[in-house]
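Narrative of accomplishments. A recurring question from our advisory board has been how the design workflow behaves on a single, concrete structure rather than in aggregate. To address it, we present the structure tokens for one chain from the evaluation set, followed by the sequence designed for it. No filtering or post-editing was applied between the two.
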């Protein structure tokens, strides 16, 4: 019962099984008749048959293979022919159970976004170092940001283990942004993270390994066009801000613009003091 229930529950959760598995418990009774020991195998035994019988033989498997067996016996030995007969009975019962299970659910449902999973990504071998980063800085950052566990093989196969779908996909996107990058285009919008402030503006991380400069002239738009003496009065490291790419120079450096309907820098607006402008 537990084997069948496990198969049904995993299919219902969307787990991609190679094949459904069912289990059956076989029993055995024996007695001496006219000086000869005779045996009778029983299919799908109950508790009393287990307690008073001579054997508890559990067989689990798919329609093609036996995947697990477990046998307890009170006898000193069981003839091979008797066990072979019990296995034949177990197969017939298993196939019948699998047919009944297939009537309930025959294919995996769509996997719930809340289900744990392991997914793989292939990256070019020459990009492995970029994904890992100096002293593991980049891969550790991705793991901290997404909550996923990431391991990389020498052939470029990346295994991502996560407790749910969004975490796994966030890690996949971050890795692809480094190893299989999407080339940004002018006008493309991002919700970026402030990673550094300088006198002339702030550097915004758009994706792992891809930063752009938000000039101080653009930062003024976050405070209604007022003069900004110190970038730190408006933006702080770690703060989210909605930006778009305004220009890409021949070297690939990105100049960013504030999106006019930006609400992401409210913390900066609240902390900004415009008394110096009066």
């Amino acid at each position: 019962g537990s084997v069948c229930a496990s198969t049904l529950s995993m299919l219902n959760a969307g787990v991609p099984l190679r094949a459904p598995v069912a289990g059956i418990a076989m029993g055995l009774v024996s007695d001496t008749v006219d000086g000869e020991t005779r045996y009778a195998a029983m299919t799908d035994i109950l508790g009393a048959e287990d307690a008073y019988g001579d054997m508890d033989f559990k067989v689990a498997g798919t329609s093609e293979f036996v995947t697990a067996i477990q046998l307890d016996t009170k006898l000193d030995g069981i003839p091979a022919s008797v066990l072979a007969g019990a296995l034949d009975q177990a197969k017939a019962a298993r196939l019948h159970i699998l047919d009944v299970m297939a009537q309930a659910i025959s294919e995996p449902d769509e996997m719930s976004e809340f289900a744990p999973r392991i997914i793989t990504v292939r990256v070019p071998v020459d990009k492995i170092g970029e994904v890992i980063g100096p002293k593991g800085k980049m891969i550790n950052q991705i793991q901290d940001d997404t909550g996923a566990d990431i391991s990389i093989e020498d052939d470029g196969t990346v295994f991502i283990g996560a407790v749910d779908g969004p975490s796994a996909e966030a890690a996949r996107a971050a890795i692809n942004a480094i190893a299989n990058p999407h080339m940004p285009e002018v006008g493309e919008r991002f919700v970026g993270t402030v990673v550094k402030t300088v006198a002339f503006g702030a550097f915004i991380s758009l994706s792992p390994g891809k930063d752009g400069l938000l000039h101080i002239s653009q930062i003024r738009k976050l405070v209604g066009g007022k003069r900004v003496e110190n970038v730190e009065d408006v933006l702080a490291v770690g703060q989210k801000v909605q930006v778009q790419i305004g220009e890409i120079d021949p070297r690939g450096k990105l100049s960013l613009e504030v999106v006019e309907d930006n609400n992401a820098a409210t913390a900066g607006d609240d902390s900004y003091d415009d008394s110096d402008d009066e």
